[in-house]
User: Fold these one by one.
Assistant:
Number 1:
Amino acid sequence: MLKIVVLASGSGTNLQAMIDSIEKGEIWNTEIAMVISNNEKAYALDRARNCGIPAVCISPKDYPSREEFYKKLLFTIEEVSPELIVLAGFLVFIPEIMIKKYKNRIINIHPSLIPSFCGTGFYGLKVHEEALKRGVKVTGATVHFVDEGTDTGPIIMQKAVEVRQDDTANILQRRVMEEAEWKILPKVIDLYAKGKIKVKDKRAWIE
Ligand code: GRF
């Protein structure tokens, strides 16, 4: 059984999509062993607890230094010993030591078609505001492995979403979630659980 840990900072709709897909049997042989948030108010923690999934808050505010915070985060993850770590709206920089330890075993969902509208500072509504400002006609979402850069790891799956003339950033954000994020994240986890995702250097593919 694929054991995963989900890291989330916010409302946790992507976490919910994973939980629902596991329940419906759309993700094969997978268990969410723990949800961790840096934000004690994150609704993602409630969603996890409502489903009986262990959920903990590890906030940098509770530690004297960044190093101590990362130590606790890594220690907590290591205790669970997951095969895959899923970043589902986790707004904390992942330290290199963790990326090395879990090479090609950490995935992230980003709300644009990478390499557009990604990198430092591109998170939340900002991504959609910039897409609207640039006037793109198509945006979407990307699931990728996490490497040392920001949104630079091997791309696993992408799904395009239409941009409409009267979209606001909020409306577009919602459409990207509904039509892309909540579909491709569970799909990638299912494929990962089935051992169908291969990765070499900067490229990932599905076998
Ligand atoms: C999503 O848009 C995801 O792509 C991004 O952060 C947001 C998290 O939303 N990385 P939620 O907490 O899953 O509702």
Number 2:
Amino acid sequence: MSRLIVVSNRVSVTKGRGAAGAQGGLAVAMNGALRARGGIWFGWSGKEVDEFTGQLTMQRADGFTTATIDLEPHDVEEYYNGYANRTIWPLFHYRIDLAEYENEFGRGYERVNEQFANSLIPLVEEEDIIWVQDYHFLPLGERLRAHGLDNRLGLFLHIPWPPARLLVSLPYHERLVEAMLHYDVIGFQSVEWLESFLHYCRKELHAEVDEATGTIRHKGNVTTARAFPIGIDHSEFLALGETDEAKRAYERLASSARNRTVVIGVDRLDYSKGLPERIDAMERLFASHEDMVNQLLYIQIAPPSREDVQSYRQIRATLERKTGQFNGAHSDVDLVPIRYVNRGFGRAELFGFYRAAKIGLVTPIRDGMNLVAKEYVAAQDPEDPGVLILSRFAGAAEQLTDALLVNPLNHEEVTRAIWTALHMPLAERKARWEKLYRVVRDADVLGWADDFITALTPEETQKSSAPLTPAAA
Ligand code: GDG
């Protein structure tokens, strides 16, 4: 079995499956895959140094090695805060109005990708497979090939792939996508993002695209593009639900709701998550039903994120203003309808909060997948499950078709969905939840990692399945 090298912006070692750690599913999946195969997890240390040296910090984790490098402050500014989070992130989430196209960002991004390639190459052995994560490293595959590496290279994109019409607004978009085609396998969260990518390759690059297999041939490169929807570590998450921490969190929220139905949102504070629009939908509901303050309690957990970027400071200010105005208008002396909490909680506590909430409000304007939707489903009581309201524009909507699917920009539709959820009979809640739960359980993050790695190692898969053929025949 080939050794695995994972590359991602940050590296995160978990304390083992089932540990009530703060890490999310991605860390769990990567740790699991690396422990199974052995290998290296390579990324940025999160530290800044005055001068880039390429010096690797290597640590032995449980069954694999982590290797990190430090970056210079201006590299972090241009590559991470700049090109990754001020150019690609908004553009790929269809926020062309927020996307900034600065030459320095693009140059910093290419420079850091080259630094990553240079630091990684000495660690790579002949049979290793390399799996790169996300939008920080779209050109890394090409950089590695330029240094003569011919190992199998895969890329998984955690965020959406925008329509060609939007992508063409990015200067040098052809160069960026042509660089991506040096990967052997490119994975997307959903069929929609995959189709957008194939369409772009055909239309803008005039590549030879086989839609049925996702094979793209262009300038001597052959790439397979496929959808690999990511999941959560379902059994790890259920184990968290058994902890005292989860039970205490459940009690705390359920008792403080004072018989009101809890609606929950849990999102990094990001403009892609549709948070102001949720408050607008609530506004509509409260305006049309006077007694709502006695019936509904909306908890929005929104830990701050990327605060070095202006648009993130802005969305935070907008939300503070909107929740303040909303609560000013709709509170009573002893009842406040929106609890907007600007900090993070432990994952076990989140489990308890999800379970105490009879409505999960997951309405991003765009989202690669959205794992909160899946966590909400996993945390429900099978005998009395809550209702998931999910944006059609999240990758998760392709799988979670039994949620109440809404257009998050249509306040009336969201308001109606909240109303429907509030009054949904137990039998329908159960029927919907059972179908959703099956999807969350059966398409989990460990299977996701296995599927991707299998696609990246076709010879290995053939070799391991070869002995079965005579026996089967
Ligand atoms: C990107 C893509 C894709 C949130 N608040 C707290 C907390 N969280 C955890 C959630 C969940 C994770 O963060 C968020 O994941 P999402 O999938 O919802 O969104 P992004 O962070 O934008 O992730 C997304 C994902 O990558 C994976 O491919 O699904 O589309 O945008 O696990 O629970 N965790 C803790 N405390 C919090 O307060 N511990």
Number 3:
Amino acid sequence: MIEKSSIKIEAEPYPFALTAASCALLILDMQRDFLEPGGFGEMLGNDVSQVRHAIEPNRQLLMAWRAAGLLVIHAREGHRPDLTDLPEAKRKRGWGKTSIGDHGPMGRILVRGEKGHDIIPELYPLPSEPVIDKPGKGAFYATDLHTILQNHGIKQLVITGVTTEVCVHTTVREANDRGYECLVPHDCVASYFPHFHEVGLKMITAQGGIFGWVSDSTRIRAVLPKKL
Ligand code: TIU
């Protein structure tokens, strides 16, 4: 049996009471399209090397989470090959030479089934781990994430991935409004813009934890239970 009582984790703005049995790890958009050259991140004019430092802390947290026998969920941002779920407003933005759906070195940009759309090998999902394919920034919008979490009795989320101020922030806000307690390990999220990363984290913890808590992955790993 997983321990039902809570374990305190040092966090901002105050300790997070982790209840392992009802806490899932949600890893957002650790896809080649955001972390490797030639994908969506670079198409938007970003330097993808800025976000790669989050890979190793995510890998260690993922291994610890799996070793504890707890629920892991992965999400990917992307669109149907026919692009029928791509709003024109999203397709047009970016003003680059290429758009979502165009061909790049890793296949069609941000399109499901393409190499660039898939999760990086370091964090590749196990067959038992649900993968949420989302057309937007938030992982709850137009997906079955909430249903899956409810079916597993999940009330808390440790949310990681890229980018801090875009998909992580949007998902933390969505989760908070649906009643989940959100903990964000600062070393497992990253942005192409370091100042947006810093202020994005401050926005989560301000006003007594308006959206949730921020801690680091070492502290979280230290309190995870051993395999059941
Ligand atoms: N552009 C940017 O910073 N992020 C995204 O478009 N998506 C995610 O954050 N996943």
Number 4:
Amino acid sequence: MAKAKPKSKTVYVCGDCGAEHNKWQGQCAECHAWNTLSEFVVQPAPSAVASVGARRSGYAGEATGAPRVTALTEVAATAESRALTGIGELDRVLGGGLVDGSVVLIGGDPGIGKSTLLLQMLGSLGEALAGLYVTGEESLAQVAARAQRLGLPLGPLKALAETCIERILEQAVAERPRVLIVDSIQTIWTEQLTAAPGSVSQVRESAAKLTRFAKETGTSVLLVGHVTKEGGIAGPRVLEHMVDAVLYFEGESGSRFRVLRAFKNRFGAVNELGVFAMSDKGLREVPNPSAIFLSTHSGPTPGSAVMVTREGTRPLLVEVQALVDQSSLGNPRRVALGLEQNRLAMLLAVLHRHGGVAAYDQDVFVNVVGGIRVQETAADLPVLLAVLSSLRDRPLPEQTIAFGEVGLSGEIRPVPNGEERLKEAATHGFKRAIVPKANAPKKTKVGEMQVIAVERLAEAIDACI
Ligand code: TYD
Ligand code: MG
């Protein structure tokens, strides 16, 4: 006897926060974003995906048994098992290797090197861990040509050109790779939905299926995600919530350096950085990147300051440049590249109020050298010093570094790991450091470097400009 056909259901999903609504409306009731709802037809699941092979691999597809409540004392907490990818900088960002059954999303601008990195990773895993590279953007011939050019061992590399998630999972169940790469999630679609590939509902549903597959079979899944103009991963925000780790690949278009940053990581530290250089043989690791973000000036230059930032677990010397120029606009420009714009506006207000320096009639441009993005507040003091140096057209004293958070009342606040930052600067031959008082060591010298401790913005300004 034929069963009654289950009905499909229409819901409206917010592209920003992923909230579901029963009817369409102009504004999302959850996150209040406008025009972000799109239609999402949920078809009842047909029979479980590839149930034949599924049983073999332990992947039950959609059909799972009844849930059972368990006291956590009964659960044996096992440390996650990891596999080293063989690319040290990637392992570092992942928190010490690729965790079995984890889902990692890698986002970045087109052409930054996402496909190259993942293919190199598969090549480096080689025979040790079977991998499968699913390409939805390039043809198999293109992938093979790239692998050849990168000089990877072609033997263990397996690829699949397919965009339908049901068929991908069918193949994955049959091949049983330990690492599955999907390039890119925006090209993947499921038969269960009528929406176009790349739409919010398709991306969300395909990613959900891949996540389920990863958790049930212990396969590590890496998804490539496109980024929007604003720099977020295209598609629903929920994608970032669904996965275990979100990595961003960043870099300036003119520069050959690329920075991989952990934005979210359930198995490691966030803001950990991995540094690579793009060469004609693909991405090369830069294991000691401390000084690559300094530009090479022949002498002291106005508008330039060097800071020691600590992104993740290692200190980096980074140069900030500022250009301050008389504005012809009623509303002068505030442009921050590699820093947060609002923070710059706030710092300029503090500079006016507590440093007695007005910049309200000046255009202010600030750039972090090397295309790196600095998120920590330790950049406050060096940014203000660079701005002031440009405004007065006077360089900072030679071989000077600075770090410190600037508070709204003009105080210079300490930042974490001051000692480590100072050591790094001293190792690189810097002669003078301007740092928050609470970060300064008891002695006024670290190696050959003189440490100037400051409590107020005015003191910092007096100390160097
Ligand atoms: P790709 O990995 O295709 O970028 P994505 O997948 O993030 O879009 O990177 C392609 C860019 O890298 C392209 O501009 C060429 C450059 N490239 C090299 O410079 N050397 C190489 O060996 C390879 C493979 C790519
Ligand atoms: Mg690509």
